[in-house]
Amino acid sequence: MNKEKRKGFFKAVTACTLTAAMLLSGGCGKQKEEKSKIAVITKQKLSFWSDVQMGAEDACNELGFELLYSVADGDNDYVSQEAAIQHAIKEHAAAIVIAPNGKTELNSAFEQAEKNGIKIININSRADYPGVISLIRSSDTEGGSVAARHAVEILKKNDENLTKLKNIAIIGHTASTAEDRISGFVDSFTNLASSAIAPDVMVENDQNPEKLAAAKQEKIEAYKKGIIKGTPCAKRDAAEEEAMKILTNSANEISVIFGTNTNTTLGICDAISELGLEDDIVVIGFNSDEEELGYIRTGVLDGTVVQNPYMMGYVGVRYAKRSLQGDNVPSILDTGTVYVDQTNLNTDFIQLLIYPRGKNDEDGNTEVGK
Amino acid sequence: MAKNKKSKGSGAYIFAGILLAIVYVINTFLVESIYWGNQTVSRQTSMAMNSLNRMNGELTAINTDCIGIAAGLKDAKDMPYIMMDTERRYGNIIAAQHQFEAIGGLSDEVMNRYNYTKSIITAYKSQLDSLGTKNVESGDYSQMGMIMKQDIYPLQVTASEMCTATIDTVTKDTQRIMAANTKKAFALMTAMMVVAILGEIAIWLFARRAKKARLELEEREKNLAEVDAKLKATRQKATDLAVTNVLTGMKNRYALDGDISDRLETGRFNIAVFDMDNFRSINDTYGYDFGDEYLAAVAEKLKEEFSDVAEIYNITGNEFCFVFNSNVSESQAMGIAQNIQRVMSSPYEVLNLAVQLPCSGAVYHYLPGDCLNVNSLLVKLDTALRSVKMNGGNMINTVMNM
Q1: What is the homologous superfamily of the domain B253-399 according to CATH?
Q2: Residue B240 in contact with residue B297, Cβ under 8 Å?
């Protein structure tokens, strides 16, 4: 009888446990659903791309995705990017957000990803692949143009009509983005300073408007040709050396000097401060490395053009999500550039741009190379 | 016992009922709290959505104006009005921001995204003020176009993007909170359910055990009753044996004692004793077993013939006592006595042998107070009987009243 009683009790307990387990498992079923994954693949280990990563992380957290982040070893290392795409395919990622290191090199990987239903979003630059849904970047041409506009503005402060305008010098970096920034800078600068470069007085005798325009254009083209362009530099030391060479040879003939990325800007600033030319030459740079900000504070660097990598990462993931939902996303989004100088360096917006998660949250990697 | 059984069963049911009621009341409160929780979340969400959509709408309106100006679609003389519009719209944005910030209880993610959005909007407005407005006033369209393209438009686009991103995070937040609420409620309800089920099972087990115990008790009581009845029967049997002659199955002298003692003082009745004459010769000739058989046969016959009119006792070996019914008169008693003598002395076939013995009797018409006890009564009757036997037997004597 005792044995039977025990049996009955066990039966009851088992029935109860099973009921509870069923109820609980019924409720937990949905909870166990795995998060979709989004692969974010960037170019190289620099703080610019760390900011992209931050944006992507925030977006993934907010939108409920798992982030598969990987970074290549340099801006021409498409091999590790290809591996990262393969990894994303293997991990059944829903979308790939990539800053491609190459125009066509990744196309076969993209094709394979697309076959697996993966959406492809580009950031920073576009690959020549028809399946790219959207490109999120800040225009390099416009960035150069912003630099030129502010350079002209600074010159006009002391010399309204730019009568004392001299030559400009540019030291570019080695990546493809340098060319766009330089052309944007040169075109805008010569356009905005055209009245000084090709003053009406020089050609006032010629009454034919067509001839007048042609003459002016010729003058501008001549000015463009005369612009001092240093050898493209990858490193700060090289840029400093190049700047030293230019400045020692022709400091008196230069009104503005422009660096197209962090290292060239820092090299130029190093040379300028060494030669004590802060007050004589307008220096415009690119990006927002801590040392660049330091040069802005000391007045060596007049201003720098800052992009919004955090926004690229964030919007990249966001657009991936929207296209996964079947929403239309713009095929191109310009996240813009902002000109930073002593006057606005400490404003909330610029601080947010430079430190997307607040100043203390930065990982100390101050090397900015894009 | 029946009452006991009922109260035991209903105790468990009452407990089960109370338990269920508690579970339901708690569940009701839970449902209520989920409803109000979700209601609050919905209200907050719609307020947040409302203010964010307002910000985004006003931003787009401002931007449309900017594009209009940059594209030369707006008349220069209308500029002051457009700028007034912008200020009004920006005022609406600030109001929407205040509305959003007053909501409270929003997640860190939402607030981070919102703060980002807000600083972009602030930057956008300051760009508008410091660059756009100045150039609009100066009418420098080429400069305006550039500023529009490089400074204002990207800011507006990203501000708008962040606005919708904030809306998305609010939606996500809402879903998360509601899912969490539902999950919490589900877990609690499940727990309550499990408690209820466990409680019911406990009650069921308890009731089953109680029922089993009750059945055992009933069984034991039944057994006890049976034993009791058996004991009573045995006792009755023993009692009967004490007052019965085993051989003839008739009541013995003790029974007679018990039956008539009370009647001696006030009773009036006829009583007779009969005895085989020389019964000993049977025992001696045929043995005691035969004698017993003979006596049993006689007794059987007497019972058959006279139990209607008298209570018959087998008071010693072959001596029978007849207490006549109260409706039997003295004379009738005498007649019956003669019948008794005839019956007793008639031949009996015992073990294939026909046996016949004469018998003698004594009849006593008892009057109240004649004897002090049954013993003296029997002495009287025996004395009368003996005197008959001394005179050769085969007669009926009468006890004389003195």
Answers
A1: Reverse transcriptase/Diguanylate cyclase domain (3.30.70.270)
A2: no
